[in-house]
Specification:
5-stranded mixed barrel; mainly beta; 5 helices
Length: 228
């Protein structure tokens, strides 16, 4: 689940996460898809660092090559035991995967599958709880990648996200006050901030099926549509 989302530009990220100006520049993306480079924030030498990583975690042991299974989402129930995620989890390789909102699909009683856009009510930029890893290809090229954690859905997301092979789930959205703990706290403290986001602070509405095609990438994707 959460296979598409919206990410802001670099200047908005720098303001939200108090980053020293970085040598990165990119526009907002309104239809982020797996394998694309996505903005994250992590701790390096005690300081917050902003960079873009491949979305879809490639474990250190994979020699820089993506496997045949999707690794864009790490389930909270198995994040400390699943082969792709247990080592990044144990090593504390945590990051903030930055977003402005995300899409999920809902199937109505007539069998119509419609995308919904979900964002936070009073926070234009937020972060999924993410993990990152670095893997090296045979020629020595380093591939850095990430995945975000998912969990059972809150009441809003349970109603919306009823499609696909893993329904009734949602991304682990961090509260602003928990960013520091997620980035540099102990394993126990980091797990403690993985909680369902308050549904009353989230907004969801139906959007166009244009979002179904990754090549469509414009603010028009966020415009609400009237269910037909």
């Amino acid at each position: 689940m959460c296979g598409r989302y919206v990410s802001p530009d670099e200047s908005a990220i720098e303001r939200e996460f108090n980053l020293v100006h970085s040598e990165w520049q990119f526009p907002p993306c309104y239809n982020v898809a797996p394998t694309q480079p996505v903005p994250v924030v992590r701790i390096v030498n005690g300081e917050r660092q902003g960079l873009r990583l491949r979305w879809g975690l490639i474990p250190y042991t994979a020699h820089g090559e993506a496997g045949k299974y999707s690794t864009i989402n790490a389930r909270i129930e198995t994040v400390d035991s699943a082969a792709s995620y247990r080592e990044p989890w144990k090593r504390g390789q945590r990051c903030l995967q930055v977003a402005s909102g995300f899409y999920e699909w809902h199937v109505d009683t007539a069998g119509r599958k419609a995308p919904y856009y979900i964002h936070l009510k009073n926070q234009p930029i937020f972060a999924f709880a993410g993990l990152w890893d670095k893997s090296f290809k045979a020629d020595g090229t380093a591939i850095e990648s990430c995945a975000h954690i998912t969990m059972p859905a809150n009441e809003l997301m349970r109603e919306i996200h009823n499609a696909g092979t893993n329904p009734h789930r949602m991304p682990a959205i961090l509260r602003r006050d928990d960013y520091a703990v997620w980035l540099s706290g102990s394993l126990d403290d980091a797990r403690g901030v993985l909680k369902q986001y308050d549904a009353s602070q989230m907004v969801a509405y139906e959007v166009s099926t244009m979002v179904n095609t990754p090549k469509n990438d414009s603010a028009a994707l966020l415009e609400p549509v009237t269910p037909g």
